[in-house]
Structures are given as C-alpha cells and as structure tokens.
Amino acid sequence: MHVPDGFIDAPVSLATGAVAAAAVAVSLRGARRELGGTAPADGLGGERTAPLAGLVAAFVFAVQMLNFPVAAGTSGHLLGGALAAILVGPFTGVLCISVVLLMQAVLFADGGLTALGVNITDMAVVTTLVAYGLFRLLLGVLPRRRSSVTAASFVAALVSVPAAACAFTLLYALGGTTDVPIGKVFAAMTGVHVLIGIGEAAITALTVGAVLAVRPDLVYGARGLTAPLQLRTSPLRPGTDAAPAPGTPEPARSTRRSALAGLLTALALAGVGSYYASASPDGLEKVAHDKGIDSKTEEHAAKDSPLADYQVADITDGRISGGLAGVIGVGATLLVGTGVTWVVVRRRRDRAAAAAAETA
Hints:
Elements lengths: L9 H27 L2 H4 L3 H19 L3 E4 L2 E3 L4 H8 L1 H19 L7 H26 L4 H30 L6 H33 L36 H21 L11 H9 L26 H42 L1
Antiparallel strand pairs: 1-2
Helix pairs in contact: 1-5, 1-6, 1-11, 3-4, 3-5, 3-9, 3-11, 4-5, 4-6, 4-7, 4-8, 5-6, 5-11, 6-7, 7-8, 8-10, 9-11
C-alpha cells in the first residue's frame, strides 16, 4: 500500500507530513517507557529490548518483500503495524514501521518521498493504533491465556488492513490528484484489502504464536499473562543468586539466541523467500491502475538508486540481485532501527541518572 508521489496533492501531503512528524515525536517519548523501563517487569532492560525493536523493523521489512496472491492479478503484503505493536509496544511499533518506510523510500524507491508523510500516517500510525486498540480490547474480554493473545493478534491484524485502506480513501478524498468517484475508490480499496487482511492476520498470528511458544516474555502484548524469567535463589544462602534450576532459561543468553534466530529468519525470507513472491501488483497498485488514480504518478526522486525496485544494479541474474537487495535492506533497517531505539534508551537512562543525582 505504498503511496507513490503524485497520488495526493501538495497541501494534503504537507499536512500528513506534519501529522507523521508529530506521531513520531510522541512515539519517541512513549517508546522510552516501553524500551527503557522493562527490567523490573520481565527481566529485560533497555540494553536488550532496543536491539529487539530493531530486529522487529528488519523482520517487517523482510516479510513485506513477500507479496502473496489474493485475487486474479492482485497481490498483497504485510503492513506490519499490528505485528510490531504487539511484539514491542504501540509507540515503538510506530517507530519500527516508520523506519521501514523510510528505508524503502530512500534506498529502494518504494513509496514516494513527498508521500512519506502519507505512508507513515497510513501504514504506521493508523494500523498500529487500530490494531493495538482492538488487541487490548479483545484481551480484556478473552480468557487470560496465551491462545487469547494469538487470537486477538489475528483479529487485530485483520481489521488494521482495511482500516488503512479507509484512511487512504479519506486522504484521497481530501487531496486526490485525479477526478475519480470516491465511492468507487472506497469500494475497490476496502474490498481487496479485506482479502489482504486475511494474509496479514495469518502472518501476524503465526509470528506472535511462535515467539510466545519460545520466549513469551519478549511479547509486549502478553505482559501480565506470563511470569517473568528469574534466577532462583539458593535456599542454603538466602539473598545470594545461585545457578538457575535445570530447564530454566538464562535470560541474556536466551535473548541473544532468540534475536539471532529472528535475524537469520529475516535474512532467509528477504534473501531466498523473496524469489517466490507474487509478481502481481499489490492492492493499491491494482486499484490505482483500474480506476485511473495513477494517471498523475510522478517519477521517484530515488529512481536511480543502485537498489531501486529491490534489485542491485549491474547484477543481471534477477534472483541473485533481488535476494542481495533484500539482505542489504534487512541489514540497513536493522542498523537504523536499532540506532533509533538505542537513542531512546540512552536518553531515558541519562534522564534517570540526572534525576537521581539531583535527589542525592
């Protein structure tokens, strides 16, 4: 659902740019709580959760390369707002998806640069808010067990995709550059994105369920439903830490193993799985072509990027070129995503240290 340059006029693009900037600023503040203050609750401090947030961004980038068929001549791909919000929290989720969209626009000419505000507002803010709000609502009425987290993840992800389609339709009604009846745009966008939402829901539920099965303490949305990982205290020497009981995972090492497994999965999906992605246009591209929305599409400013269209320049083999571009994208997204979350964690730690010094 990446909106290119030329679909939405300048005033609405500027307005959504301001909305996106404000949302990112608010998310930076909210992410300080999600990333920096988790140690008492789940045994993980910001030093460990920041890389995990970067990994979520890299994983979303990788899975977005895997377009799946949804109808004749139409494909869809993960938006990722629901998945990111449930795994690392809604504020951090907005940051993760924003980083993905920035990398795609700048490096791969996917999604317009002047439309970056539109894309962040639609694909990062709307999907995350709708998905996480519905997710928490469902957890409030479902039994308190892990299967409820997976089920709520499925429904939240499913609803978030047509919600994003509705948001695009609203933005198009306000600032569309072509004269297309808005009712036709709404019907076409919601119809195809309900189907795409089923794929999004399946991917989100499978991923959340897999992480829950291995490390439930790493799922932000499952906090309070699972006991934190702790070292056992020796009964012979009260107050001292003993080695963990057999079968009890050691948090730092287990976290590193989980992060490595996630990174290898993202690299495999982007480097190999992308070979088998559907070549059909995605839902927005198909609707835009059929309804004439794309008649004023502008050339992308990064069209000459060596990674444009997810292909590495000068490599003639399409599969190798696409796979290598995917691997580069995963690495770049991981670095930028981790860097952003590290800054958030460091600022929280510095403020806490300053506050402690003042009260000392």
